[in-house]
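User: Please run a holo structure prediction.
Assistant: Happy to. Please share the sequence and the ligand.
User: Here you go; the ligand is 2-acetamido-2-deoxy-beta-D-glucopyranose.
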Amino acid sequence: MLSSILALSTFLLVLSIINNVASQTSSPNSSKRGIAYLGTSTAQDYNIFTSKSSPLKWYYNWSPYPVGNPRSFRNLEFVPLIHNLDSLSNDLSQLSNLPSTSTHLLTFNEPDGSTSGGGSNISPSDAAAAYIHSIAPLSRSNGGKFLISHPSTTGTLSGLNWLRSFNTSCYALNRTHGCPIDFIATHFYGDFPALASWLGTLNEYYNTNQSANLPMWVTELALPQQSAAATEVMMNTTLPFLDGLNYVERYAWFGIFREGNANGWTGGGVALLDNQGDLSELGASYMGGGYRAGMSAQNEDGAVGAADKMRMSTGLISAMAMARLVMELIM
Ligand SMILES: *[C@@H]1O[C@H](CO)[C@@H](O)[C@H](O)[C@H]1NC(C)=O
Ligand SMILES: *[C@@H]1O[C@H](CO)[C@@H](O)[C@H](O)[C@H]1NC(C)=O
Ligand SMILES: *[C@@H]1O[C@H](CO)[C@@H](O)[C@H](O)[C@H]1NC(C)=O
Ligand SMILES: *[C@@H]1O[C@H](CO)[C@@H](O)[C@H](O)[C@H]1NC(C)=O
Ligand SMILES: *[C@@H]1O[C@H](CO)[C@@H](O)[C@H](O)[C@H]1NC(C)=O
């Protein structure tokens, strides 16, 4: 009797140790990690990323309209983005349809980039005028309902120069406040040292040199045109760095699509899904502890998916094996 009580309590202890280890090895601060949703994959491919047990917490899709299908996207916080000036009044009125869980607003996508490459190609002075007129009033600092970002440029010197001109135009229009900002948003494509250098430059520009303390989001991020293996090495260096970097609040890898659906510029090495719609090695690393390449969740609405079941049974099997070992030792 005593020995079986002892065995039971040891079993429970071992279970709780296993649980602790499992939660520590899954991404250290996965609350920063999110989804840049392109919508180029089969709808059910997204379920593994949006299920209730997914470590990912938020998503955006370069628009102010949330994803309607798969409905499991409701499990994640939606972050609206106003991509350009083309349908500004419609975009602004759509913002009032969003739930109160949408607390942040991203603005103009790569205004220093060409429209053919996904950029919005807006001059700094046009962007400043629209920002002051239409975006600034939405900031909580002006009584609006959002925390707002400045436009997210490309992670290049021309991006930084665009931001400098934008700031000059902003202050020409409003001498006391310029264009109010609640958080920084940026993109980066390249290797880890260059990424660390870019984030450092932007932090110096916005924070160190202004005695400010703005959080930063990296809303597009990848190593383009490299093999899947080289990209995984870069990702494995980058994610712990971003998780540990205080001023980085959120980031999203580019991207969640099947390898064959990647654009020619990034190449297929960045894809989080293989051509069957299952996690690639890179996808498994992005999801963190317990997820493996080849897993998928081809079920509806973020109920417990195949991958979750596999993780639970793997956890259970190792817990049982451990408990059996403990029993053998104490009996
Ligand atoms: C300047 O911007 C601030 C904050 O956005 C606003 O309260 C103020 O009214 C603006 N001033 C002018 C002259 O537009
Ligand atoms: C920050 O300020 C220093 C000193 O004025 C300047 O040399 C540097 O270029 C600034 N950094 C950025 C990124 O603008
Ligand atoms: C923006 O311009 C204002 C006015 O010239 C200046 O005080 C401020 O330092 C600039 N901000 C940045 C981030 O460079
Ligand atoms: C994780 O990041 C979030 C968002 O930046 C932050 O609020 C939280 O304190 C961080 N947690 C840890 C354990 O660092
Ligand atoms: C990257 O990290 C994952 C765990 O998150 C690991 O399974 C994988 O082997 C690592 N890959 C490389 C190339 O280091």
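The chain is about 40% helix and 10% strand.
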